[in-house]
Design a protein that fits this description.
The chain is of the alpha+beta class and 294 residues long. It has 6 helices and 17 strands. Helices cover 25% and strands 29% of the residues. α1 links the parallel β1 and β2. α3 runs parallel beside α4.
């Protein structure tokens, strides 16, 4: 059996980069001490979630890849001998920026990167102002522990990306995330949103016969503009098995580290029991490339 231990770090951030990085380093060390071979961080983990407002000075937070942050995380991956999934604000060229997941292998090398493909534009999530849609496709990243199907946050609502990762041999689907509630939402609405978020990703696990790892941030972050009451990030980071079963789940109120053992060979058995890939009518799917079928 091919089992690996996965570390999830659900962290609250401040506006002090140094403090955030020191905390991430401590948390990575903690899950590594419990045997984590693969560690996944939340979306845009270096800073506060700056997309609540449209402010051109926030572009100063972006970095080239490779750059200072990739150097920092490369050394951590090498030191703890882990595969590390990070989420960075990439400056590709003047005026051209991406929301980019960078994966480091156990020797500290960059195994690959994924640029977020689906970019939201909702109140308090003004990401289209900052991020150019990705152009690297949905390509699993080969590492020493297997192929990682990494996407980022808003991508998690789209089954097509998960399927394309699975069809190229991904062993795990991974989603660094920053999602939460507006404080004016009712308790019923909060429950619906959280339920939909989990159901969608558990559905990717079931449809593709793969484990899913989703790591969300936690805590309340103020809206600098004062137009809203900010975002209460709902945490609930989780790992689902290839039948959608919840293997571990964090809470919604506090920072948490999880270490979860996942049997990667279980996907083979699940796909034998539920042969969804065998039965796909690929000869009838051509119209999926259309925006809408009138």
């Amino acid at each position: 059996m091919r089992k690996i231990k996965i570390g999830l770090i659900q962290q609250a951030n401040s506006n002090d980069l140094r403090i955030n990085l020191e905390k991430l380093n401590r948390n990575i060390a903690a899950v590594s001490a419990y045997g984590a071979e693969l560690v996944v961080l939340q979306e845009l983990h270096n800073t506060l979630y700056f997309c609540q407002t449209e402010d051109t000075t926030n572009f100063d937070l972006a970095e080239p890849i490779p750059g200072p942050s990739t150097g920092f995380y490369s050394e951590i991956a090498r030191q703890f001998h882990i595969v590390l999934v990070t989420s960075l604000f990439e400056k590709r060229a003047p005026g051209l920026y991406h929301n980019t997941a960078v994966v480091f292998d156990k020797d500290g090398s960059i195994a690959g990167k994924y640029r977020k493909m689906h970019i939201p534009d909702d109140p308090a999530y003004y990401e289209k102002f900052y991020f150019t849609p990705g152009d690297l496709g949905f390509k699993p990243i080969q590492t020493s522990i297997g192929k990682l199907g990494v996407q980022v946050c808003w991508d998690q609502w789209y089954p097509e990306g998960a399927r394309l990762m699975a069809l190229q041999g991904a062993d795990i689907l991974i989603y660094p995330t920053a999602i939460g509630w507006e404080s004016s939402d009712t308790d019923d609405e909060k429950a619906r949103q959280l339920g939909a978020w989990m159901i969608s990703q558990r559905g990717h696990a079931v449809a593709n016969g793969l484990p899913v790892v989703a790591v969300n941030r936690i805590g309340h972050e103020l809206d600098p503009s004062g137009q809203t009451r900010g975002i209460q990030f709902w945490g609930n980071s989780f790992v689902a098995g290839p039948q959608g079963e919840i293997l571990a789940q964090a809470g919604s109120l506090k920072e948490e580290n999880l270490v979860v053992e996942v049997d990667l060979e279980r996907s083979e058995n699940v796909r034998r029991w539920w042969p969804f890939l065998r039965d796909r009518r690929i000869d009838e799917f051509q119209e999926l490339t259309r925006r809408f079928i009138d």
